[in-house]
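> forwarded from #structure-qc
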């Protein structure tokens, strides 16, 4: 699976540009703030419908313009797929092979992508939101049913939280069970899928981390221990938990339990990574998790995803840079860096120099 080409128009700092990618190693290089990361962002957006940087799509439109166009042709085991997106100030339109899609779920699964940037250190350093976001994006690419369950769960959760703020307590108590039956159904599916995913991720991340650190450190990832059983059992247990905490939730004005409050335990050599890991340890752990994600896609889909490594080389020492490049053998990789020589190491590379939002030819 790989991206053949990419088209950008009025996207971030790009006027109009076309990229041709190799199915192997691609290096976007140039000075800082020239548009390398913007190109990588566009690739990930076309794969997932999600930006790793922008909270709102309109933030990706070039200043002074009213819309942006991006598109790509990707090659998978079932042939070529064309994906086009028009991003406007009030919404977007995405087409797959010329057919307009109405749901983001219909975009997922056409081409898979794994994205790493310095911001991914938040996966280790920040709060539970970042770790849930990682799980949601990764699992959604693999499972449309998970994405659908997550979307419906979030909509029902919003309705429930709005209800909890209502001062008519009698109405609240009468209506909560109706919402909770639906909420717990989707919550159980989310919990089970996350548990299944983490069972696969944890040993793969441990192996990748041992590879990057020459076996000097041990990375362990585990979910919180509160979800056991199948979907039916979990749904019933979650319903009881919500029912037993109506007073608490009404007092707080929001739902204080459920998958939207989940977290992961990430340790390095037995110590909590968030509180005790150095900057270098954090970077290596986050990178190991992303390399594990690559292998999960390979096992689940029968082909590698596109691996996007944004500005990762500058913060790794030479041995780890070499190890990382060696690990990309056999899959399409798009790397952004300031100096292309840092990642060559004898590999055949498609080098693309970016300057001022354009390819310097």
């Amino acid at each position: 699976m790989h991206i053949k080409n990419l088209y950008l128009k009025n996207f971030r700092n790009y006027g109009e540009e076309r990229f041709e990618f190799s199915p192997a190693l691609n290096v976007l290089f140039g000075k800082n703030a020239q548009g390398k990361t913007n190109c990588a962002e566009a690739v990930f957006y076309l794969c997932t419908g999600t930006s790793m940087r922008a909270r709102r799509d309109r933030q990706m439109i070039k200043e002074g313009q009213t819309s942006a166009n991006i598109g790509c042709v990707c090659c998978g085991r079932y042939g070529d797929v064309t994906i086009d997106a028009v991003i406007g100030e009030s919404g977007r339109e995405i087409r797959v092979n010329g057919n307009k899609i109405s749901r983001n779920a219909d975009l997922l699964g056409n081409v898979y992508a794994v994205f790493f940037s310095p911001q991914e250190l938040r996966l280790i350093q920040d709060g539970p939101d970042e770790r849930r976001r990682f799980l949601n994006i990764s699992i959604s690419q693999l499972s449309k049913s998970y994405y659908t369950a997550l979307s419906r769960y979030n909509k029902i959760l919003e309705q429930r939280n709005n209800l909890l703020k209502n001062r008519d307590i009698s109405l609240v108590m009468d209506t909560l069970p109706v919402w909770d039956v639906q909420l717990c159904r989707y919550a159980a599916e989310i919990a089970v899928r996350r548990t299944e995913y983490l069972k696969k991720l944890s040993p793969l991340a441990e192996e990748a981390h041992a590879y990057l650190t020459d076996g000097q450190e041990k990375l362990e990832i585990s979910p919180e221990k509160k979800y056991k059983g199948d979907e039916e059992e979990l749904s019933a247990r979650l319903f009881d938990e919500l029912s037993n905490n109506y007073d608490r939730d009404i007092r707080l004005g929001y739902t204080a339990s459920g998958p939207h409050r989940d977290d992961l335990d990430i340790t390095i050599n037995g110590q909590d990574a968030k509180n005790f890991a150095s900057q270098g340890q954090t970077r290596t752990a986050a990178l190991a998790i992303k390399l594990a994600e690559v292998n999960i896609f390979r096992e689940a889909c029968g082909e590698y995803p596109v691996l996007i490594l944004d500005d990762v080389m500058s913060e790794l020492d030479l041995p780890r840079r070499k190890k990382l490049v060696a690990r990309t053998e056999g899959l399409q990789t798009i790397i952004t860096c300031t100096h292309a020589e840092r990642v060559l190491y004898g590999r055949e590379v498609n080098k693309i120099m970016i300057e001022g939002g354009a390819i310097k030819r």
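QC bot note: The first helix runs from residue 36 to 48. DSSP finds ten helices and 14 strands in the chain.
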